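User: For my dataset I need records formatted as: sequence, then structure tokens, nothing else. Please produce one.
Assistant:
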Amino acid sequence: MPLLPTVSRLFRSAVRVRTAPVANVTTKPPKENITAGEQAIAMTVLFITILGPSGWILAHLEDYKKK
């Protein structure tokens, strides 16, 4: 049995499943407007949360190698 028709059927079934809407998207205006300052604070916290630990590890990589 050739592999290509099997892969083709799996791909078609995966595409069919993905056509259903995943989330409810509305076009209404927001209930509360977020100011630029609040957005800046949120982005800063997000970047520190994600990049802080990885930066710490990279900065102390030589210390970890010695242990």
